[in-house]
């Protein structure tokens, strides 16, 4: 229990990276010609930022761990017990999973591929453990945020300057303004007037893309009226059914059912063969004649490839990748990572 909590307490941070030397320093010579670090930095700003970000996050992680150690130690002293026992007791009292939460989660995830073959008792156990781990991460994050707010946790090492990517939304992009597939009409904001625009690059065979879906639903619920969410294809080469599935989603979009097909495809990641795509199209009630004609149209796959190339131009190499008002996040990160940027963007827009 103690080791698990320690892991959870540092869950959201990155890994070690070396510092960038002074920008004026010489990096290397080619045929006697000097190449400066500054020139390399200007040409590869995203890569250098990721390295500096990892260094900053390593220092931040160390600060957070020492703050938590101090927090549990003081709590233990106030209770006349060890810091470990005080921590376990505190977490246990705060991370309780209600029957309502458990039943709702079971209803939502019961058909997930990783749970489908399990007994009801095992499903309940695994989902309960997952919910408890989520609550534990939130408790740890709350303690850290309160420490920052109270001035007890201050990271004085300079945060690296984050590059902002120019991600232009087009009329072909599928847009959603809320958590439901039907939330395609503006609610509270419209287009560029939304305080937050998220462009996500993902693909339907990506397990990490599925993992982040609950976080996306939560964000779209809690920030409804302030955000628009856009999805673009980035089919990875080793996922052979990612492109046909993406094409099927585009054909559903032509009939106003993109998000319904989006959810259906993610619910059935292991069923993406041609016959499966036909069944999914029927499930979301598409006109099958139009659907099949669209699948055969070379323009459909061209749209998929266009999305893929746009992702490559932005430096995307894997899925999921998110651009939040041009700020990049990569991977199936926890809710807190998204919330931090959402809140910063809302504050900056004066619409929070």
Structure in words:
This protein has 352 residues and is of the alpha+beta class. It folds into 2 domains: 2-149, no CATH class; 175-349, Glutaredoxin. The protein has helices spanning 2-9, 37-43, 45-79, 83-94, 99-109, 120-149, 207-211, 213-222, 242-254, 258-267, 274-283, 288-296, 298-313, 335-349, and strands spanning 26-30, 33-36, 175-176, 196-202, 227-233, 321-324, 327-330. It has a 5-stranded mixed beta sheet. It has a two-stranded antiparallel ribbon with strand order 1-2. The model is unreliable at 1-19 (pLDDT under 50).
Q: Could you provide a short overview of the structure?
A:
The protein is of the alpha+beta class. It has helices spanning 2-9, 37-43, 45-79, 83-94, 99-109, 120-149, 207-211, 213-222, 242-254, 258-267, 274-283, 288-296, 298-313, 335-349; strands spanning 26-30, 33-36, 175-176, 196-202, 227-233, 321-324, 327-330. The chain is 54% helix and 9% strand.
List the helices and strands and how they pair.
Blueprint lengths: L1 H8 L16 E5 L2 E4 H7 L1 H35 L3 H12 L4 H11 L10 H30 L25 E2 L19 E7 L4 H5 L1 H10 L4 E7 L8 H13 L3 H10 L6 H10 L4 H9 L1 H16 L7 E4 L2 E4 L4 H15 L3
Parallel strand pairs: 4-5
Antiparallel strand pairs: 1-2, 3-5, 4-6, 6-7
Helix pairs in contact: 3-4, 5-6, 9-10, 9-12, 9-13
Keywords:
alpha+beta; single chain; disordered N terminus; two-stranded antiparallel ribbon; 9% strand; 352 residues; Glutaredoxin; 2 domains
What pattern of helices and strands is seen along the backbone?
HEEHHHHHEEHHEHHHHHEEH
Percent helix among the residues?
A: 40-55%
Domain count, please report it: 2
The largest pleated sheet is described as: 5 strands, mixed
Molecular shape: globular
Structural class: alpha+beta
Percent of sequence in beta strands:
5-15%
Question: From the coordinates shown, what is the CATH architecture of the largest domain?
Answer: 3-Layer(aba) Sandwich
Give me the CATH fold name of the largest domain: Glutaredoxin
End-to-end C-alpha gap: 38 Å
Report the uncertain regions: 1-19
The count of strands amounts to: 7
Spatially, the strands of the biggest sheet line up as 3-5-4-6-7
| Total DSSP helices | 14
Give me the CATH superfamily of the largest domain: Glutaredoxin
Please compute the radius of gyration using only Cα atoms.
Answer: 23 Å
CATH class designation of the largest domain: Alpha Beta
